[in-house]
Amino acid sequence: MTQGSLMRLEELRSGFRGTDQYIDFLAKEETIRRILEMKEEKDVLILGHNYMEPLIYQISGEGERGDSLALSKYAAKARNPIILFDGVRFMAETAKILNPEKKVLIADLEAGCSLADPFGAKDVLEYRTRYPEAPVVTYINSYAEVKAESDYCCTSANALDVVKHAASESGSERVVFLPDSFMGENLQKELVKEGSNIDLIYPGKKDNKFGSCIVHEKISAVDIRVIRRQFNLPKGGNDTAVLVHWECKPEVLDVADMYGSTSEMIRYVSSHPELKRVYLGTECEMSANLANEFPQVEFIRSCMVHCPHMRKITLDKILYSLENEVYEVNVPEQIRVKALGAIERMIAI
Question: Which of 51, 110, 123, 157 is the most exposed place for a label (fewest CB within 10 A)?
Fold first, then answer.
């Protein structure tokens, strides 16, 4: 084992000691050791999404983990010959679009997305036909063929800015946002609140289509009210907060203290040192990861909402993928070039 991977293993052991995951770490220590060896031996950039379980999330170091926007930017700057994406397939596709000359791997090609899987290029073209004057902004939770037919890509961290930029650049007060219906509705409410005249077209607003995240659609306003009472989290409390994701239902955002992307939630916790108790209305592993990062904060663990696609990524699968350099993600060049334009326009904003 090299000195670098040995030091990283010791850092992980020290970081997990005293946490809920320490026993799991000890049980998987040999697998983690081999992953770290492979990472250094093959010069692999391992990108870890915020929704990965802690043992996987921490394999990626600083500047290698985050939300979709952060990971897109890390991938764009990558110099490593191999990128392994610990997330779902559309994220690995984005890395490949940005790095066509690199080998991009994912530990399980079946790690899909409830938003991306049912939505294809033909759906984008249908909206373009119905609204020919409107620029199309596609959420990053989509596959390459969808991005290729879009004007802009966006993430939950920059969606509002991208929508306003698209409207301004096109001179149109109508923008198509795909494929998340709840997020589209939430963005429209935010635009109205800001006094904007932008008419955001999203699935379900003027048709019978619908798109949602199977994790965030399960979180209800009733759940939030019950959690507030049960764990003494008053709205607007000085040392407590309920933070929820843009993909939740509009009524859930109404009863939260803050809503945003996962990176914005992290920044909120970091910038409010007075916080003692926090509930995160998003994928459960996020709370586990932040509990390790902010040990002074109690993250309410009343969460049973896990993403079945994210959970397909395991340590054993990661090791197998690294050892054999398998489950490579490829994007046809014609699609890649068109999708790259939408992603680059997003990153440039």
Answer: 110
Question: Which residue shows structure tokens 């990176």?
Answer: 263
Amino acid at 266: I
Domains and CATH numbers, the chain: 3-111+310-324 (3.40.50.10800), 121-212 (3.40.50.10800), 216-299 (3.40.50.10800)
Task: Report the alpha-carbon distance of residue 278 to residue 233 in Å, rounded.
Answer: 8
DSSP E strand boundaries for 159-268: 174-178, 199-201, 240-245, 258-260
pLDDT in tens, 218-239: 999 999 999 999 999 999 999 9
Q: Would you say 95 and 104 are in contact if contact means Cβ atoms under 8 Å apart?
A: yes
Which H or E element spans position 281? strand 277-281
Whole-angstrom Cα distance, residue 54 to residue 286?
Answer: 9
CA distance linking residue 150 with residue 124, whole number of Å: 7
Among 162, 8, 4, 176, residue whose Cα is nearest residue 72? 162
Spatial contact of 215 and 305, defined as CB atoms under 8 Å apart: yes
- Dist CA 64 CA 205 (whole Å): 37
- DSSP 8-state secondary structure symbol assigned to residue 328: B
The predicted-structure confidence for 18-74, as pLDDT tens digits, reads as follows: 998 999 999 999 999 999 999 999 999 999 999 999 999 999 998 899 988 788 889
Residue with tokens 């992980």: 12
- Please tell me whether residue 66 adopts helix, strand or coil conformation: strand
Give the residue from 200, 138, 192 showing the smallest Cα distance to 175.
200
